[in-house]
Fold:
Amino acid sequence: MTAPAGNSEAGLAIHGVALEMVERGAGRPLLFLHPGHPSGRLDPKAPVLEELAAHTHVIAPTHPGFGSTPAPRELTTIDDLAYLYLDLLDTLNLRDVIVVGVSLGGWIAAEMAVKSTEHMSALVLANAVGIKPGDRETRDIADIYAVTDKQLAELVWADPARMAPNPKTLPEGDLVAMARSRESTGRYAWSPYMHDPKLKGRLHRIRLPTLVLWGAADRVATVEYGRSYEAAIGGARFETIEGAGHFPHLEQPQAFARAVLGFIDATTRR
Amino acid sequence: MRVFQFTEQPYPPVWDDHNGSLRVNLPNRKLDPKIAADLFHRYYDEWQLADELGLDIMLNEHHATATCMSAACVIGLSVLARITKRARLLVLGYPIANRPDPLRAAEELATIDVISRGRLEMGFVRGVPQEVPIANLNPVFQSDRFWEAHDFIIKALTSHDEPFNWESENFHYRQVNVWPRCYQQPHPPVWSTTGSTFNAKKLGQYGYVMATLGTGYATRRLFDAYRQGYAEKHSGAAAPADRFAYLGLVAVGRTKEEARRRGELIASYPRSSGIVFAPFKNPPGYLSIEDNVRILKGEGKPRSFTKDGRVVDMASGSVQDLIDAGVMFCGTPDEVYEQIGDFVEHCGGMANLLMMGHAGPMSHEDTVGNLTLFAEEVYPRLKAMRQPEATAVAAQ
Structure:
């Protein structure tokens, strides 16, 4: 198995699972794990990709089911994706990888890190879901499937008027991607809803420099929820991004990249 | 033809007081348990009447809704198994993909079959999308889970010699041994519903009774898909008419005026059943990617058509629209007989009419009048009516 050349939108197969992937830039490897509905796979033209690729070698896979093909039947949980991406790091034979995940991608990143940090040097969890900090009657994470599209936009964006896409103006391909993202998020995160009941109790295993980065206006998982993540990971640093909600990499790409790159510079050696 | 009397056992007092959603999130404070008790007893009385009139019986379940108070079909089946004498008891259906425990379902169904002395008709359904938020089992895998629960229940009902083991992604059992076992052997007849040709063909392969709802004069393509699947797995044989069922709204009157008045009351069902907070209608994975793209574009997907291809919106159509679409059979006994006969011709054979003879605010008196007139003046003629010849239909 050989890694695809830089600056590509290629794919490869990891133990029989086809993986679509964007690769950009040179330098230290950075695995970017995208969020779920109402966002999805990283657009190869996304400004955050340029920002990160100016200083790192960005590897951004598309979670199976979010891309142009359905997920294989056997992939059903976030745990499955965590093992898939650990296998990816193995296959690419990468070292000192900076793993960055947003929302659902942050959950995957955390599940990877509690299993093995062998290939990693730093972890960035941005508006990550995945843990259950509250009691059984507290809705820690907003139910994105129990609200209208307009209500959802208000939950996820600091500035919904600027950020929320208008499906009526989008090309067919984007609509298919939106529909796949909505379905696949449900596939992996329907119940237990957006979390793994065991994950919080395992986060102590993460002994990497960890940044918990939070779009301050997030109403899907609030800053307080992010603080619970920080508290469960020893030595984790917590930062917020103003003017961003649940998807800070899209709403404030420069500030997002600055925070990620600044953290790496401050905490890890090249 | 067999006719099954069906009501959703509604709670109509709040149908005008719902803030845009009659399902999932309508607070149950709005239900007065004393009124609910009166309604339940009335509905059972009306089913007893149906039994006495020679009709069969159908019931269903929905959750968290004023459109249907039957939240556990097994309760209605249990009551009816004891208080009715001869009617077949069709549950259509039991939403087996929304239950974490199909062994419990198998035990319930077998027991009801025994208590009713073999009168159970066992309908399994995937369920409407707005059931998903209540059940909270993953809708993306609902179809897989449906078929696995089906496989499990059939095996549980037909295994008699020793406990068996079932360990899969969905269900985990180590000692499956259903007591009591079914009265009907090998098991009660299986029914299901569908709106897609893919599933229709699959049901045909099994040879189960297939029902459709609200498909009007677009029913034939579903029935033909069934016929294709049936022939494939039955040595080329033509699917008999008794493999097909259709849920029709029925309003009969001595006069046209009386029938129309009852038709308006029955039409409250299609006019209310879609009133639900929009996000609950589309859980992820329930509809296809293609359907979701259509929704994103703001396009709907019509299901009901008149004989001449006009699209009818069941939720807003007039009684005449519903009649034209074959969704409602309404008129004097002569007219209703003709409408049903015409529809059976369209279907190429359909020998089970699932008759919604009560809905919404229809009174006890009107329900009794509707059922009695139908049973006395329409049903005998439907029983005598010749179905289209199955082999000829299959050859078309």
Remarks:
- Chain A touches chain B at residues 37, 76, 145-148, 167-168, 170, 172, 175-176, 178-180, 182-187, 190-191 (CB under 8 Å).
